[in-house]
């Protein structure tokens, strides 16, 4: 197979073009909306670098003089914007708290754009040490570079035109889109099945979700993460909830479903919060030394010539954005943050001096903690990939720290003397954490993109400009999509209209958790017993994982994934596990078939993995886009199910039809991946 090798420093090709920027913006809208919907529904987002690269290649090859570096810029821009949607892990908390009645466009845009762009700026001095000189694997970055190389080769050794993979992406999107429309729109298919059982005094729940987007997400997570989530699911619904329901008196008139759900949401879920928190802290602790060394080396490279060749000339592939521009942009972005926080705090019951003191502390916290988090996330992204990096765990740490900071300052300034002031303090903690999460998510993704650029021979400063553009476009897309989804579905515990069905509300799990933590800190009502149990469980799991690591081999126990499995609803975790098992089984079968035929095993597995990744990404995008489109229909009609063809009496049949359709799509996924090449 022909390959496009790394573009040499002496070669100058069009990279940051107008058509590429426009195409990147259009792809940005698609993946940002998809990630927002998926994140609010299940608490997970997916790396959009690979599907963005596929779409870019398929479109740009229709134009003359398109090249691999232009394709790289498009996927860079689109993946940055799609990643910025991780801010939904915290920002909906302002609506859940009742501080916001929607998502004000300019405030939401400003906090997303300023935080995201700071993430870009913070990642620039990390590039040299963590991308150029480091041996970190950067799984998504390397995979995206390989796809760009193969797609840009044009034709294979036989002269046949190379496929970009767009057909697989569209096939997955079409299957998931049709399923989602039939389930969420027409209501002919159920989105999951549940059975509630009484075992003595305990309540037991058996669940299976039919979401194809979750199958795709589980496929991308892989078998190690999937089994860890399964362990979390078993610990919650096989141990914690049965035990807690057995020792908790059941309220009069309560059903098994309402009682079990109440115990899970108010108690068992916080075990997951403790596990997630300690897992994030442990991850940061283990990465602290190499992170500091990487930052020191990168800052030295930035102050020096950054890899200058003979005569002091910096090669094209080593030219970062000039330090003066980095400094100016940083000042501007900090000013934007200050104005945004000032506007946010304007209605607070404080005098001007106290208000601006809080603004200064919030900006300083976002800046200092944001830089530390950027370095940590950049290293973690290089080590385990963007999708596996614990952004939500870092958000939990940030919301605890900033809540304690504001609690101390608010006590001195009298902010907490009134209920209104206390509510403002909680809201400020959530808003400040939003800036930190934006910084973390973008720095988490940017170094993957810069790795892709380094492998294909891109110009770093142009790629950094593309990242900034992606943040700006993504920040403009986020507020209207959030507003649309909120008004159509509502969030858990926050429905815009009284007549809405809470079962259709988007779970927004991380935002719910972080809001509960911030509220609990300020009201001194946090469920510390369950959190401490979760921390203790996390310590045990970390010890097991460390023993597995020292023994070598592939067996590991990612503690963060266990915590997520405890925290997420079982219909979500179960579908994720299905996707993870599907990924493992497919690659195992393909390996055996390749060995039996005498084929090159590595080539066969790479083909299967690439095809499966694109199909899985298509499943996520297809279901997510239909979910956003249905939200628009619901919002315009003002009805909960304007397209429904059946009533509630069809629910039993819909479950069986949903299960049958779910199995058929999974079988189709399998057959398409293992089809003859």
Automatic annotation (TrEMBL):
<keyword id="KW-1133">Transmembrane helix</keyword>
<feature type="transmembrane region" description="Helical">
    <location>
        <begin position="564"/>
        <end position="587"/>
    </location>
</feature>
<feature type="transmembrane region" description="Helical">
    <location>
        <begin position="76"/>
        <end position="97"/>
    </location>
</feature>
<feature type="transmembrane region" description="Helical">
    <location>
        <begin position="169"/>
        <end position="190"/>
    </location>
</feature>
<feature type="transmembrane region" description="Helical">
    <location>
        <begin position="21"/>
        <end position="40"/>
    </location>
</feature>
<keyword id="KW-0813">Transport</keyword>
<feature type="transmembrane region" description="Helical">
    <location>
        <begin position="268"/>
        <end position="288"/>
    </location>
</feature>
<feature type="transmembrane region" description="Helical">
    <location>
        <begin position="227"/>
        <end position="248"/>
    </location>
</feature>
<keyword id="KW-0472">Membrane</keyword>
<dbReference type="GO" id="GO:0016020">
    <property type="term" value="C:membrane"/>
</dbReference>
<dbReference type="InterPro" id="IPR004814">
    <property type="entry name" value="Oligopep_transpt"/>
</dbReference>
<feature type="transmembrane region" description="Helical">
    <location>
        <begin position="46"/>
        <end position="64"/>
    </location>
</feature>
<feature type="transmembrane region" description="Helical">
    <location>
        <begin position="356"/>
        <end position="379"/>
    </location>
</feature>
<feature type="transmembrane region" description="Helical">
    <location>
        <begin position="323"/>
        <end position="344"/>
    </location>
</feature>
<feature type="transmembrane region" description="Helical">
    <location>
        <begin position="465"/>
        <end position="486"/>
    </location>
</feature>
<protein>
    <submittedName>
        <fullName>Putative OPT family oligopeptide transporter</fullName>
    </submittedName>
</protein>
<dbReference type="Pfam" id="PF03169">
    <property type="entry name" value="OPT"/>
</dbReference>
<feature type="transmembrane region" description="Helical">
    <location>
        <begin position="614"/>
        <end position="636"/>
    </location>
</feature>
<feature type="transmembrane region" description="Helical">
    <location>
        <begin position="391"/>
        <end position="412"/>
    </location>
</feature>
<feature type="transmembrane region" description="Helical">
    <location>
        <begin position="196"/>
        <end position="220"/>
    </location>
</feature>
<keyword id="KW-0812">Transmembrane</keyword>
<feature type="transmembrane region" description="Helical">
    <location>
        <begin position="103"/>
        <end position="124"/>
    </location>
</feature>
<feature type="transmembrane region" description="Helical">
    <location>
        <begin position="506"/>
        <end position="523"/>
    </location>
</feature>
<feature type="transmembrane region" description="Helical">
    <location>
        <begin position="656"/>
        <end position="674"/>
    </location>
</feature>
<feature type="transmembrane region" description="Helical">
    <location>
        <begin position="528"/>
        <end position="544"/>
    </location>
</feature>
<dbReference type="InterPro" id="IPR004813">
    <property type="entry name" value="OPT"/>
</dbReference>
<dbReference type="InterPro" id="IPR045035">
    <property type="entry name" value="YSL-like"/>
</dbReference>
<feature type="transmembrane region" description="Helical">
    <location>
        <begin position="424"/>
        <end position="444"/>
    </location>
</feature>
<dbReference type="GO" id="GO:0035673">
    <property type="term" value="F:oligopeptide transmembrane transporter activity"/>
</dbReference>
């Amino acid at each position: 197979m022909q390959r496009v090798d790394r573009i040499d420093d002496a070669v100058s090709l069009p990279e940051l073009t107008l058509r590429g920027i426009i195409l990147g913006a259009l792809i940005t809208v698609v993946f940002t909306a998809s990630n927002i919907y998926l994140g609010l529904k299940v608490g997970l987002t997916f790396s959009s670098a690979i599907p963005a690269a596929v779409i870019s290649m398929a479109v740009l090859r229709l134009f003359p003089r398109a090249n691999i570096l232009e394709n790289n810029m498009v996927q860079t821009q689109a993946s940055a914007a799609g990643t910025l949607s991780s801010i939904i892990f915290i920002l909906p908390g302002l609506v859940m708290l009742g501080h916001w009645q929607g998502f004000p466009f300019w405030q939401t845009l400003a906090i997303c754009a300023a935080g995201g762009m700071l993430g870009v700026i913070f990642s620039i001095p990390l590039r040299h040490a963590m991308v150029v000189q480091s041996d970190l694997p950067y799984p998504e970055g390397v995979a995206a570079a390989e796809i760009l190389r193969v797609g840009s080769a044009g034709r294979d050794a036989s002269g046949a035109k190379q496929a970009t993979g767009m057909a697989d992406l569209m096939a997955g999107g079409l299957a998931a889109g049709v399923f989602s429309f039939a389930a969420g729109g027409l209501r002919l298919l159920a989105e999951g099945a549940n059975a509630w059982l009484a075992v003595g005094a305990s309540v037991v729940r058996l669940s299976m979700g039919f979401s194809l987007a979750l199958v795709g997400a589980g496929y991308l997570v892989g078998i190690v993460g999937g089994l860890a989530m399964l362990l979390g699911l078993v610990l919650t619904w096989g141990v914690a909830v049965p035990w807690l329901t057995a020792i908790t008196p059941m309220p009069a008139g309560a059903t098994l479903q309402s009682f079990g759900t109440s115990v899970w949401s108010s108690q068992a879920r916080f075990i997951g919060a403790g596990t997630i928190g300690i897992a994030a802290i442990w991850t940061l602790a283990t990465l602290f030394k190499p992170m500091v060394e990487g930052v020191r080396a990168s800052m030295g490279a930035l102050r020096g010539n950054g890899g200058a060749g003979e005569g002091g000339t910096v090669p094209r592939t080593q030219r970062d954005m000039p330090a003066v521009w980095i400094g100016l942009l940083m000042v501007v972005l900090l000013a934007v943050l200050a104005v945004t926080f000032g506007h946010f705090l304007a209605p607070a019951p404080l005098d001007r001096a106290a208000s601006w003191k809080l603004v200064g502390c919030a900006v300083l916290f976002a800046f200092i903690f944001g830089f530390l988090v950027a370095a940590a996330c950049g290293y973690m992204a290089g080590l385990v990939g963007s999708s596996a990096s614990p952004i939500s765990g870092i958000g939990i740490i940030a919301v605890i720290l900033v809540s304690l900071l504001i609690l101390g300052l608010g006590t001195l300034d009298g902010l907490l003397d009134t209920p209104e002031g206390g509510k403002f303090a909680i809201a400020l903690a959530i808003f400040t954490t939003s800036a930190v999460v934006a910084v973390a998510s973008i720095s988490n993704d940017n170094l993957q993109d810069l790795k892709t650029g380094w492998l294909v021979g891109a110009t770093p400063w142009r790629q950094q400009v593309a990242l900034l553009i992606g943040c700006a476009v993504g920040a403009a897309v986020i507020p209207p999509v959030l507003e649309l989804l909120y008004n159509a579905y509502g969030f858990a515990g926050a429905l815009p209209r009284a007549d809405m069905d809470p079962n259709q509300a988007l779970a927004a799990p991380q935002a719910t958790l972080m809001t509960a933590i911030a509220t609990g800190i300020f009201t001194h009502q946090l469920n510390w017993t369950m959190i401490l149990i979760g921390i203790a469980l996390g310590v045990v799991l970390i010890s097991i994982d460390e023993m597995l690591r020292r023994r070598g081999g592939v067996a590991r126990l990612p503690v963060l994934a266990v915590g997520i499995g405890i925290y997420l609803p079982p219909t979500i975790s179960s579908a994720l596990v299905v996707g993870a098992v599907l990924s493992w089984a497919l690659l195992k079968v393909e390996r055996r078939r390749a060995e039996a035929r005498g084929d090159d095993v590595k080539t066969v597995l790479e083909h299967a993995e690439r095809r499966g990744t694109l199909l899985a990404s298509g499943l996520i995008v297809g279901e997510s886009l239909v979910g956003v489109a249905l939200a628009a229909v619901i919002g315009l009609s003002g009805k909960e199910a304007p397209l429904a063809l059946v009533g509630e009496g069809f629910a039993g049949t819909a479950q069986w039809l949903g299960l049958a359709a779910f199995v058929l799509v999974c079988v189709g996924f399998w057959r398409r991946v293992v089809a003859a090449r």
